[in-house]
Design a protein that fits this description.
189 residues; alpha+beta; archaeoglobus fulgidus dsm 4304 fold; 6 helices; 28% strand; globular
Length: 189
Amino acid sequence: MHIKEQSKVIGWNEGPFDFDQEEPTPLIGVITRGGGTVDGVLKREVAVDGLNGTRLLSTAINESKHSEELSLVVLAGVTLAGFNVVDISKISENTKLPVLSVTREKVDMESFKSALKNLPNFQQRWRAARNAGEIGELDLDDHRVYYQTANLSNSDAERALKVMATHSVLPEPIRLAGMIATSLVRRES
């Protein structure tokens, strides 16, 4: 798999939330051609600290009118809205697309595991986190990003990151998705 400048990718990011809120927060998917032209936007809602992230993303992608044109799914980490841990391997299996999770900071897995123990369904959440595999790292414009993949080699992931990081060290589709989701909650980003 080789992401080119015109390959369609979908990047997902959630809106701001409080850990004690009961209502879901917006989850936005932005479809771009590489790190450029926006071809579509999807909106869903995700439960804070819930268990629905994997199913929600898989369904949204598969039901999208863009699904047949997509080459890659990009996530801003393997958690949504707190500790709604997504299983990137299952998303890849469900959508038949490679998945790339990207963060600016390296996750301390022992601290993460300890925090998950405070939530119901610890084993399910921890299994999803472990399914993301090893954490890779890449320097982009003097900044380091960390990534995990499902059905995508590290070399292909790094090429994709370089194509998509057009205005930031984060891939453009997740940067835009974060801005849109934030504006839905705070009325501006």
